[in-house]
Write a structure and sequence with these properties.
heterodimer; A: Fumarate Reductase Cytochrome B subunit; 2 domains; two-stranded antiparallel sheet; elongated; disordered N terminus; B: 428 residues; mainly alpha; 22 helices; disordered C terminus
């Protein structure tokens, strides 16, 4: 499931070299990511003026109570979209995992710790070998779980400050201001994390468009998911031998 | 050439003349800035004398020959009887009398005897007619009253709305400010609530019981506000507008952020900061710069602490430190609030391990986490970028080397065909 070779693109014609690509994300996952971008962007841009209310630009945006209400409504709608998407993601993937329809690539393993250690050594010029990653390298797993936890935290704290009366029925009141502080600070941590960490790895280090196209090129596979590539390419070695020979000629 | 020099000279001369005129015009004005606190200046009283030059020869004794007799009255158009007896000591003891102002300086039309005909509809009409005279010496104050809530009420047809003499009286006008400092005298601070109480007696009763009123009346403490400290004087604003409400926290903050006053009573000066940082205040101050008259449903200081019946925070009946009192206040706007709800409000405390500990520790957590996350990511990302650039540089070098050595040698056939130029990073 994780690695399927698209046989159609292996064909070549008229001397044009066609590269084989590997499926990385299913269509549903790509749509989920698009929805995530959309809702998080809306949440960020409707949340920032509320956080930085002392700034002049914020006061110009939120000049009247009506505008504040409108902004909050948009924020709440985007929040509902994100909550639905996150809930779907959680249950859909749990269903797939329990049904053995999805490999457990995303879960952290001890190998990730070793990879991280090797990566550190690599970055410190102590070794020339980058760790060979599987479908998800340790950095991608870290990104996924960091965002996973943050979304949970943001959703939880957001609901607390959205419904303080309900929450204080069964929780101490101090939860509410703490949730407000967490929500507004965590948002900044998230924004910085996405912009510095995620954008660096998918845009600057290399442009990784697989979350939109769903596919990785062979070169990307070999370079960034060496372990998976070896595992997969080894398995299909026999069938690719012929084409490889023809490629070279 | 000659022409242009003449033009320049003329222009320069004109500039000098203009500057001279400007400094002449501006300097007397700026030397006597307008202030509503100052006593009538030399200039304005001279002005008054000029208006009534003929009457100044008439001393108060002349007037009091008749008007000093009790029982002197006149009938008005509606049949009301106007008492025109003036107790001699009343004017003499007033601030005007002390400074030697004569009856005829205010009663400008009655210098001759028999007096010119004076007619008024009723007693109120007499007051309103004579009230116009105040602006002759006090034009600034008179102007300010025109912007007041009293003038607005008057303009909508309420003839009882306060005019000058309703507060200051007609003859017994008292000195309210220290002539040297321009500040209210301790006595005046006590008189003011009593003056306002002539019309606003219900509010006065509330004020008397409040932390401010009881302290003022009981101990004559000058630190507590009297009516005009919050409402202003002369141009008293309508306190029922949305604009007044939105701006009202600043009124309280005038004193409550001043450590010189608050430290004496152990009252926190962080009340405004903490209010602004918390749910309600955040929204209230948000609109102030752009929409100062915005209608808001968020509470301002007086919604919780009371308008005139403000109590000590630990007052058993009204004080907000008493939990059920706070709860009652919360439930005014949040009727479904339950026992835990009031703790959602930080009660003007800055979070600390003792107060709102959870908020304190969350804040501490992020104070550590944010630098660690940003710093860690910045270090890792720049290390990664550095290593990637280094690799790219080296692979170019190597490729050049390979090209030199092998000339135009074809890459080996096989699975790793393109690996020859890629593998320098991963497969060395």
């Amino acid at each position: 499931m994780s690695l399927q070779m698209n046989k159609d693109t292996r064909l070549e014609s008229n001397g044009v070299r066609l590269e084989r690509t590997y499926q990385r994300f299913m269509l549903g996952q790509r749509w989920e990511h698009a929805l995530l971008i959309l809702s998080v962007t809306v949440l960020l841009f409707t949340g920032l003026p509320q956080k930085y209310r002392a700034a002049m630009w914020s006061q110009q945006i939120l000049a009247t109570p009506e505008r504040l209400d409108l902004l909050r409504q948009i924020h709440h709608i985007a929040a509902i979209v994100l909550i639905i998407e996150a809930t779907y993601h959680l249950f859909h993937n749990m269903y797939l995992l329990f049904g053995r329809l999805l490999p457990e690539d995303i879960f952290p393993t001890w190998q990730d710790m070793r990879d991280a250690w090797q990566m550190l050594k690599y970055l410190l010029f102590l070794t020339k070998e980058k760790p060979a990653a599987g479908k998800y390298n340790f950095e991608q797993k870290f990104t996924y779980w960091f965002i996973f936890l943050i979304l949970g935290m943001m959703g939880l704290t957001g609901l607390i400050i959205w419904y303080p009366l309900v929450v204080t029925n069964f929780l101490p009141g101090g939860i509410v201001p703490a949730a407000k502080l967490t929500h507004s600070t965590e948002a900044i941590v998230t924004a910085i994390f996405i912009i510095v960490w995620h954008f660096y790895h998918v845009h600057i280090e290399r442009f990784n468009s697989s979350i939109f196209t769903g596919r990785l090129s062979e070169e990307e596979m070999r370079k960034y998911h060496a372990a998976d590539y070896e595992r997969f390419a080894g398995a299909v070695q026999d069938t690719t031998e012929e084409e490889s020979g023809r490629d070279a000629s | 050439m000659h022409h242009s020099r003449a033009i320049v000279r003329t222009l320069f001369g004109a500039l000098v003349v203009l500057f001279a005129i400007w400094s002449l015009v501006v300097s007397p004005v700026s030397a006597a800035p307008f202030s509503q606190d100052v006593e009538p200046t030399q200039g304005s009283s001279k002005n008054a004398q000029e208006v009534t030059p003929n009457n100044l020869s008439i001393g108060d004794d002349t007037c009091l020959e008749c008007h000093g007799q009790p029982g002197l009255t006149m009938e008005l158009e509606n049949g009301e009887v106007l008492d025109i007896f003036v107790p001699p000591q009343e004017h003499a003891g007033s601030v005007h009398g002390e400074m030697g102002y004569a009856c005829v300086q205010c009663h400008t039309t009655v210098g001759d005897y028999p007096h010119p005909k004076f007619s008024a509809l009723d007693q109120r009409d007499v007051t309103l007619q004579l009230n116009e005279v105040c602006q002759r010496c006090h034009p600034g104050e008179f102007e300010l009253t025109q912007d007041s809530v009293h003038a607005a009420a008057f303009n909508t047809g309420n003839r009882e709305a306060a005019v000058c003499s309703d507060c200051h009286t007609a003859h017994d006008v008292r000195r309210l400010t220290d002539p040297d400092t321009g500040e209210l005298t301790p006595d005046a601070r006590l008189w003011i609530p009593q003056t306002c109480a002539r019309c606003h007696s219900a509010i006065y009763d509330k004020y008397l019981d409040s932390v401010h009123g009881s302290t003022l009346i009981g101990t004559e403490n000058p630190d507590v506000p009297t009516c005009i400290d919050c409402h202003g004087v002369h141009n008293i604003e309508d306190p029922t507008t949305a604009g007044f409400r939105l701006n009202s926290p600043q009124i309280c903050a005038n004193c409550h952020t001043d450590p010189e006053i608050m430290d004496k009573y152990g009252v926190s000066t962080e009340v405004l900061n903490t209010y602004v940082a918390d749910f309600h205040g955040t929204s209230v101050v948000l609109f102030e710069p752009e929409t100062p008259d915005a209608e808001i449903n968020k509470p301002v200081c007086f919604d919780c602490h009371g308008v005139h019946d403000i109590a000590w925070a630990d007052d058993p009946i009204k004080g907000l430190k008493v939990r059920q009192n706070l709860m009652a206040r919360c439930q005014v706007c949040h009727p479904d609030a339950t026992d835990n709800f009031p703790d959602a409000w930080l009660s003007h405390y800055i979070p600390s391990p003792d107060n709102n500990a959870l908020v304190y520790y969350v804040n501490l957590f992020y104070k550590i986490l944010i630098p660690v996350v940003i710093g860690g990511m910045a270090v890792l990302v720049s290390m990664d970028a550095g290593r990637t650039l280094w690799n790219r540089y080296r692979s170019r070098k190597e490729k050049e080397q390979v090209e030199l050595e092998t000339d135009v040698k074809q890459p080996l056939p096989g699975r790793s065909k393109s690996a020859a130029d890629e593998s320098e990073v991963e497969h060395e």
